[in-house]
Structures are given as structure tokens and as C-alpha cells.
């Protein structure tokens, strides 16, 4: 009797074992021979946003005068002036303030005689209008003194003085002087002649924005020594520690500064471990300063260097109005860097012989494309093609590591 062959059934366990065997073989092949992975180029953008502390360097000139006792200012903080504008009147050291009060007293008597004695019964609309403006200006000054107004008191006082001069000129033209008024005019001329020897008009030597706030760094942190500023200079600026004197000598004192408000710089200093590698000389950046979040400034990265003392120093050149930051030396800000162009996975970056590159296939041949990495977040990066021979554009197939 013949025996029948037994047929083996293929069980589920067999398929599981086979799948495992194939997976092991695949992994071994990958480890031994390597298996190419591919990606595609896209054209896209990436950004870096980072808080920084900036030291502000302005293109400014400090003007000095011989030491003085009194000063009257004719322009206000932040005012744009032209060459020849009278900035202030100063009275020399040793000036007796009584000379000025004597002149004011005589001028008050002249106004009283003109307006209340000779013109007491005359109604004049022009004079009434001037008097009304004077009264309003006095009330505005009083409001500032009382703390109920934030107006600039120097500007108000200057306008009040102009109104008094306008009134005095009007009365001199329209009032016929009697003997008493003639005598007062003589006294006024004599008092002014004495004051001329004590008084000096300070006029602007060039155009610019005027400021009376000085912090002592105006001659240390300038556009002309940007490449020699040290780590210590930056640290001192942040602490407000001024080394040396900002004066020309013991007989002079600083009075004001003139600023080129469309030419200024920001210096960002960080420790070497915190270097912002994405910041490259010649690129563009944006800075938004604390307190001015609605006004981002666009800057050009003028230089990147390692200063004396170590770390990394970035100099950003600004060409937008600095007036809101006229008296600010250090400021917290948000740095924004935007990059657009060739976007690839970070695994597409290869390094060979110290050169950074992408690998792509063209006509079945592997082609190496030298690139510069502009930004890399660990998953994706934006690169700049450095090759003149190989074009890498949208949908170009590249090899991944």
C-alpha cells in the first residue's frame, strides 16, 4: 500500500519570520552598501528672531563754549536746525545777574509807559491781539510748571520772549516818546551796551538735530572708531562708566551736540558661545527697539569681527531717523533676520575637504554643488548656490545623508 505525502501548511508564523529576515537583510545592505535617499529643492523663506542688547553710536559733534554763568536757549531738544541758527545766548563767567535784572526792569518801565500812560485811552486791535497771545503763553508755561502739561517749556519761553519783543517793537513804532520815555530809552541803551560785553551768541556751525543731553560717550563711541571699539568699551557703555573727560579743557564746557539723524549705528556684542552665525557682513537685518514696537528699523550689517577681549561684535548701519532714540545709549531690541532662496532638508548638506555642498544627479552622474548655508534650524536650511556651472532650482532632486 503506497504512502501518501503529507503537505505542510504555511502558517502565519512563517510570514512573520520571513518579514523579519527581509528587514534584517535590508538593514545589513544599508549598513554595508548604503542606500540613497532623495529630497527635492523648494524655493522658500526662513527667519531668525532673537532678543539682543544694542549700544547706539551716532554721527554727532559736541560743541563747547568758554565757561559761563547764565544761558538762554533758543532751540529745543530734538529740533532740526540749519547752519547759522542761534542756539543760545551765554553770559561769561563772573557775570553779575543784576545787570540783566536792571535791563529787564527798565524794559518793563518802558512798556508800562508806552501802553498805560501814553496809549492808555487808545484801542488798537493789533496790540490787543499781541497781549492776548502773551497771556495765553503765560498760562501754558504755568501749566507746565504745575505739572498739568507736558509741553516743552524752553520752546514756550522762547515764544513768549518773541511776543514781548514783537510788542515792544510795535509800541516803539507807534508811540510818540515824551521826556520820561526818552530817558527810559537812554537807560535801556546803556544797560544793553554793558551786557554786550558779557553776552555771546552761540550759533550752529552746521546743520543737524540739536540735543542738550550728553552722556560722555559722544567722543568715545563714534562712527570713526567702530573698528577699534573693544569689549571693555561696550561693557562701560552699558554700565554708564565714562573714561576720561569729554571737555576740551578746564576753561570750556560742553553746551550742545549736533546729530546727523540719518546716519547712525548699533553695536551688538555677544560672547563667543552665543555668536549669531547667521549674521553675515553686507546682509540686511531688522531691529525693533523696546518701547518702539510699532517702528522696526532696517539695517545693513556693516561688519562682523572678534574684538579685543574676545566674543563677537556686530556693527549695524542705520539710515532711518534716529530722533526717537536721540538720548538713548543702550537699548533692548529684537533682531529679525529673513532669508529667502534655496530651501533643502538639513540632511542634504555634505562636507567634503572642508567644503559645504549639495549632491544632485544629472544625466545619471553625481554632481557636487558648493553652497553657503545661510540659516539652519536643524531640520531645514536656506543655502546660497556658489556654483557657476550647476543650476539648483525648484524641484531639483538632491541626495540626502
Helix content: 25-40%
**Looking at the structure, what is the overall shape?**
elongated
Report Rg. 38 Å
| SS class | alpha+beta
β-strand percent reads: 35-45%
The overall pLDDT average reads: 82
Number of strands: 17
Tell me the major beta sheet: 6 strands, antiparallel, barrel
List keywords for this structure.
single chain, 401 residues, alpha+beta, three-stranded antiparallel beta sheet, 29% helix, disordered N terminus
Write a structural description.
- The structure is a single chain.
- This protein has 401 residues and is α+β, with helices and mostly antiparallel strands.
- The chain contains six helices and 17 strands.
- The strands form three sheets. It has a six-stranded antiparallel beta barrel.
- β15 and β16 form a beta hairpin.
- α2 (97-118) packs antiparallel against α5 (179-196) and α3 (125-146) runs antiparallel to α4.
- The radius of gyration is 38 Å and the shape is elongated.
In short:
The chain has 401 residues and is of the alpha+beta class.
Secondary structure layout plus pairing:
Blueprint: H1 12-33, E1 37-40, E2 42-66, E3 68-73, E4 80-81, E5 86-92, H2 97-118, H3 125-146, H4 153-174, H5 179-196, E6 199-203, E7 208-211, H6 231-239, E8 252-270, E9 284-289, E10 297-305, E11 312-318, E12 330-345, E13 350-352, E14 355-362, E15 365-376, E16 380-385, E17 397-400
Antiparallel strand pairs: 1-17, 2-8, 2-12, 3-5, 4-7, 5-6, 7-8, 8-11, 9-10, 9-12, 10-11, 12-16, 13-14, 14-15, 15-16
